[in-house]
Design a protein that fits this description.
alpha+beta, Murine Class I Major Histocompatibility Complex, H2-DB, Chain A, domain 1, Immunoglobulin-like, eight-stranded antiparallel β-sheet, five-stranded antiparallel β-sheet, 37% strand, Major histocompatibility complex class I-related gene protein-like, MHC_I/II-like_Ag-recog, MHC_I-like_Ag-recog
């Protein structure tokens, strides 16, 4: 039977060059055992703080440094959590229910906003959008300073909000100037967690001589990564099945991508590629005739 050789051609991995600060706020009605208002703050998809009507606080120890050393940022969060956004989402939710004649039932209004920073180019972008009952409702175009209504239900809201130029300009300024500055500070305070990068251990596995070859990566962090199979240097899709990114017990992640390959082919033309999102470096694993790991962790030569 054909056997495999695991060969790391390029094993240095670097962290993603793009970072995000995201605010996810949820207002609800008719949902039992769930707060009417809930907010989550995420950096690079990691939850770093949360709040509801009664609770506010960081999720990690390093968050205490933000509370102690960045009172302006923390005060803004408190105002958003306890004063501004709970009232705003409640009023908007009530207005939408009246507009759509929804006196009963479960209804969810969600606001997602934030900014993205490319720490290589310095390019900054912001985003601000609303969803209602699981569908996109309205989005702010930060370039034209107008609102986009992806559904006819939001046209009335768009027409009214387009006239509120002062609030729109404030949003643009906040999400393209203040937000990136706060993001940089959070990355500084939480560097050991937020900028941590652990490269994976990559293995090639095969259950039987006729089954698919699985390229399995484990122990990597963060979870923003991709894997693919290539043939002669070009990505292939036929005969390839991608698995989900799954968590490990130690906080790292694992994932697999399977390849169905004919035993008559030259397997050395195929490579499994692992890459962190936004990184240039890759881990490339080559198929060859030498070693294969079975699903029992054994090898045959």
């Amino acid at each position: 039977m054909k056997t495999l050789l695991l060969f790391l051609l390029f094993c240095r991995a670097s962290s993603a060059v793009k970072h995000t600060l995201k605010f996810v706020l949820t207002g609800s009605s008719g949902v039992s055992a769930f707060p009417d208002f809930l907010a989550v703050i995420e950096v690079n998809e990691n939850q770093v703080a949360y709040c509801d009507a009664d609770t506010f606080g960081p999720k990690h120890e390093w968050g205490k440094n933000v509370v102690e050393n960045d009172p302006e940022q923390v005060q803004w969060y408190r105002n958003e959590c306890y004063e501004d956004k709970p009232y705003f989402l409640k009023e908007m939710l009530s207005s939408l229910k009246q507009r759509f004649n929804q006196s009963e039932g479960v209804h969810i209004l969600q606001l997602m906003s934030g900014c993205e920073l490319d720490d290589t180019t310095g390019q900054v972008s912001g985003f601000l959008q609303y969803g209602y009952d699981g569908e996109d409702f309205i989005v702010l175009d930060l370039n034209t300073l107008t609102w986009i209504a992806p559904t006819p239900k939001a046209v009335i809201t768009k027409q009214r909000w387009d006239t509120e130029r002062g609030r729109t300009k404030y949003n643009v300024r906040f999400f393209t100037q203040m937000c990136p500055q706060w993001l940089k500070r959070l990355l500084h305070y939480g560097e050991k967690t937020l900028l941590r990068t652990d490269p994976p251990s990559v293995s090639l596995l095969q259950k039987t001589p006729s089954s698919a070859v699985s390229c399995h990566a484990t122990g990597f962090y963060p979870d923003r990564a991709l894997m693919l199979w290539s043939k002669d240097g070009e990505e292939i899709h036929e005969g390839v099945e991608h698995g989900e990114i799954l968590p490990n017990h130690d906080g790292t992640f694992q994932m697999s991508v399977d390849l169905n390959v004919s035993s008559a082919e030259d397997w050395r033309r195929y490579h499994c590629v692992f890459q962190f999102d936004g990184a240039e470096d890759r881990i490339i694993t080559e198929l060859d005739e030498a070693v294969i790991r079975t699903n029992r962790g054994e090898s045959s030569v």
